[in-house]
Fold this protein.
Amino acid sequence: MIFRSIRWRLQAWHGLLLVSVLTGFGLTAYQVAHDNQMRRIDQELEHRLMGLFRPEPPPGPPELRREGPGQARPFDPEHMMTLLCAAIDRANTADAAQTNAFYYALWEKDGSLAAHSVPVPQDLERPSPSGPLIAYSPETPPGPPLRGGPHEPRPGPILTRNIGDRREMFRFLPHGECLLVGHLLGPDIAAMHRLALWLGSAGAGVLLFGLAGGWWLASRAIRPIEEISATAQKIAAGDLSHRINAADADSELGRLAQVLNSTFARLESAFAHQARFTSDASHELRTPVSVILTQTQTALSRPRSDAEYREALEACRRAAQRMRNLTESLLELARLDAGQEPLRTETVDLSRVAQECVDLIQPLAAERQVQLSCELAPAKCVGDAERIGQVVTNLVSNAIQFNRPAGQVRVATRTENGAVLLSVSDTGQGIPAEDLPHIFERFYRVDQSRSRAQGRTGLGLAISKAIAEAHSGSIEVTSQLGTGSTFVFKLPGQTAVS
Ligand code: ADP
């Protein structure tokens, strides 16, 4: 469960990475230090081994044990052994004053120990088994180096070996003797252990610091996500007014917060719109239902004359008619919203559709004493002629309806930038600027009571807009209070569509 959290996963990856890097770094540092140490020891051993060969006069009687008497003669093995014993004695004395970590041993060619420093590891004092030369290998067993067989004319190569916590370097002399310098690695191993401990502690410290820093960073990075999730939860619980605090707008999460905020704002407005629409629809339907109920109750309360019954029935018919208009309009809107309204796609000349609508509506204009004029240029588009006619009829009837007595309505069609346009201008009362953004909303009427009294549903422009949008077109309005309004219905031209 815990590893489902992004913060924990980030922390786990971060920790894994840190541990790998620190382990790699620590091991490399340890290995480099170890190699350097061994190289230094080998250099020192070689230096001491070679130093023993320097021809220096023997410093008086050596205190070292010397097995067997020998007469020193220049350049003969016996003389060389004497010199080496003296050198070992000197080196031993110098070392004893310093670290005492080096020791020396010299074997005769028959494998017997000729000289050694004090102290010397015990296994070096054992007599060596005689026999043929056993080739050197790093796994050379403890004890004196083994050799045998024919003499070699020159000193052998310098060889090294590790035995327990000792590092030894030895060399066979031309006549079969063997000289060895060794070093006790105890203090170096302890120093390396201290280094390992230090590296481990430093690594653990860096790991802890890195994990704490990683946790802090991950928490900081996750905080906006937690805020987004908390806000989304509040919104899901029904409070659509909440917004995410998008302080760092330039970051990725800030941009996400902005997108979500605008989505929430649209959701809120859509919900508010929906709620208003439902309440408006019920309100609109309640009025005719109340009319029918009142009329029938009144008619049935006592016996009535035929004329009274007829009047009551006529009122009920009008109310029912109004309900039917309303429900049909609502159904049409719902189908247009859902994209279920089947639309024909035929070539339509907007000027011809406009002319037919104007002809149909002319009697209404005459009745309202409004002068209807047309300026119709051919404007071909593709769409459903019946639906386009519905929009034109609604715009022209509104222009007549909301006109002043003896006013004028001018209907014109034209093509512009590949689009076809129909404009309907009137000399009516105009629409107040604050109402302009809302007149395409469902049930919105500038003068609610008067418009409802006239039997208008307040859905005409909403349906017109939905039809225009279903044709990839638009309707725009400009209006001057007291002077008149102009509605422009715009559709893609036939060439633009094909
Ligand atoms: P209605 O059924 O009320 O006409 P519409 O959707 O067609 O519904 O119009 C919405 C409102 O827009 C109208 O009630 C009216 O207030 C305003 N309106 C529409 N056309 C005009 C116009 N030509 N002049 C003034 N007001 C208009």
About this structure: Residues 394, 398-399, 402, 426, 428-429, 431, 439, 444-447, 451, 456-462, 485 surround adenosine-5'-diphosphate (CB under 6 Å). The first strand starts at residue 102 and ends at 107. The chain is about 50% helix and 15% strand.
